[in-house]
Amino acid sequence: MEKRVGPDEARKQFRAGLRVPTAGWAPGYAQANLIAVPRDLAYDLLLFAQRNPKPCPVLDVTEPGSHTTPLAPGADLRTDLPAYRIWRHGECVAETGDASEYWRDDLVALLIGCSFTFEQALLDAAVPVRHLEEDRNVPMYRTNVDCRPAGSLGGPLVVSMRPIPAPQVATAVRVTARYPAVHGAPVHVGDPAGLGITDLSRPDFGDPVTVNDGEVPVFWACGVTPQAAVMASRPEFAISHAPGYMFVTDVPDRTYEV
């Protein structure tokens, strides 16, 4: 399995049925979270994103029923992610590699920035990225930090975690701060208890990774936050990516560097 392919080839493989986390895939190109809701909930979702820009930086919004995006012309949002989750009343009722049969004409999809986008910049700065080293999905955690609610939507902030050697934490903060459209600088550095996280070995989403002596857990806001809002607020219907199984865009990651 070769991750170092272009975005079109990555999407082709996912469309053909490959189901793997996308960290490290199509290096040099941005990735995005997906959340799609019925049109009558779309304003609340957009307002939720606007009020919580750190976890929900919006890269694109589709027209109702559309399954295309200028972030990857020719791609299909229903089929070109490796895994989707189907939500009914806050419960995940299915996980699938093809959401076509669930897609509705009234769905509005938001594509939200993903921290996988800045991982090449971290590597270029000689900052290790543990889940890439261990070929695992990034660990993600619900926190005790409430997002600002919007209409019928509310829920906790979700964060992703990367263990960083203590002397390189400042570099990691500086590098990722240059990418505000894909979560930017960390929201928390150090003791997980400050976010209400009691056990790093038991992430709510993704896989645990090794935290070595002398390393500091560093937490970034995560685009799985809208899924946590769906779980908390229990809307009638939604479709999302499976956490860590992102939409690979045609946009170079440096496009989002400021």
Structural commentary:
This protein has 258 residues and is of the alpha+beta class. Helix content is 19%, strand content 26%. It has six helices and eleven strands. The protein has helices at residues 7-15, 39-51, 119-124, 130-133, 169-177, 225-233, and strands at residues 29-38, 58-61, 84-88, 91-96, 107-113, 140-146, 156-165, 188-189, 215-221, 238-241, 247-252. Strands 1, 2, 3, 4, 5, 10 and 11 form a seven-stranded antiparallel beta sheet that branches. A four-stranded antiparallel beta sheet has the order 6-7-9-8, with helices on one face. Strand 3 and strand 4 (91-96) form a beta hairpin. The chain starts with 6 loop residues before the first helix and ends in a 6-residue tail after the last strand. The relative contact order is 0.25. The mean pLDDT is 98.
Helix content: 10-25%
Count the strands? 11
Uncertain regions spanning at least 5 consecutive residues:
none
**Helices and strands, in N-to-C order?**
HEHEEEEHHEEHEEHEE
Cα-atom radius of gyration: 17 Å
Global structural class: alpha+beta
User: What is the average of the pLDDT values?
Assistant: 98
What are its keywords?
globular; 6 helices; 258 residues; alpha+beta
Topology of this protein?
Elements lengths: L6 H9 L13 E10 H13 L6 E4 L22 E5 L2 E6 L10 E7 L5 H6 L5 H4 L6 E7 L9 E10 L3 H9 L10 E2 L25 E7 L3 H9 L4 E4 L5 E6 L6
Antiparallel strand pairs: 1-5, 1-10, 1-11, 2-5, 3-4, 3-10, 6-7, 7-9, 8-9
